[in-house]
Amino acid sequence: MAAQETILFIPGHMCDARLFAPQIAALENEYRIVVADLKTGNSFEGYIASALESAGEGAFNLVGLSMGGMLAVQMAAQHPGRIKRLALLSTTSDPEAPHRAETRRQRIERANAAGLETIAREELAPSYLAQAHQGREDLIDLVVAMAAAHGLDVFAAQSAAMTARMDCRDMLPGYKGPVLVLCGDEDRLFSVEKHEAIAAMLENSELVVQAGIGHLPTVESPQETTAALKALLARPGREPA
Asked: Which of 108, 135, 161 marks a domain boundary?
């Protein structure tokens, strides 16, 4: 019996395995599931090294959302031979924009003053969710709970790591395996145009844009997102280098 393929999920900023719970439930019987832990470390290089160690030896499928997608982009650029298939959700390959770095600095100050859970409820969740989902307490509570599980020190460390991340736009086209680029058309953080630009860099990519969905398609549109991942996993994977 052939060994199960591995899927390495990399969560977004202040998120954990709960971000991918619907997809994990749908895939765990057929694949070995690993979720990267981003609670320790303070740089993309450190997060990537930890994620690669957790994936184990050999090739694997890689799924990253938001900050997890940024990490996946850099991982694909630097370690293309390890990655059989790549899914980039709600993310960017660009370096940090100055205004975004300033927003992160202000949020850290407010989180220290008002509490992380307050910032997650009043600022993070509204920026993540589509208009139709702004009143969904289950999704708001999920964002707050995941943030609270990380704490203020991790909030500051992850924010600094994102601010210092490298520009991967010239490196990403070196990845030749199958790619899913997926986003919602109401993503307030990374536009459809940003995702179109990523897809255009990758010769073996498919772009999926979900109508009426925000920054968290894995939980805002779980069935459609899972279907898109299954379609990617059904494609012939990149052979290990």
From this structure: 161
DSSP 134-166: TT-HHHHHHHHHHHHHH-HHHHHHHHHHHHTPP
Same domain for 43 and 147, yes or no, is no
Please give the single-letter amino acid code of residue 101: A
| φ and ψ at residue 84, rounded to 5 degrees | -75, -45
Give the whole-angstrom CA distance, residue 91 versus residue 6. Answer: 22
Exposure letters 81-106 (e unless 16+ CB within 10 A, then b): ebbbbbbbbbbbbbbbeeebbeebee
**Residue 127 C-alpha from the chain's centroid:** 15
- Domains in the chain: how many in total? 2
Report CA 1 to chain centroid distance, whole Å.
32
Whether residue 77 lies inside any domain: the answer is yes
Tokens of 223: 């069935």
Rounded to whole angstroms, how far apart are CA atoms 20 and 63?
10
Spatial strand order in the sheet of 60-65: 32-35, 6-10, 60-65, 83-89, 179-184, 205-210
Domain that holds residue 122: 98-161
pLDDT digits (tens, 9 = 90+) for 48-74: 999 999 999 999 999 999 999 999 999
SS (H, E, C) 20-66: HHHHHHHHCCCCEEEECCCCCCCCHHHHHHHHHHHHCCCCEEEEEEC
Measured CA to CA, the distance from residue 130 to residue 212 in angstroms comes to 6
Question: To the nearest whole percent, how much of the chain has pLDDT over 70?
Answer: 98
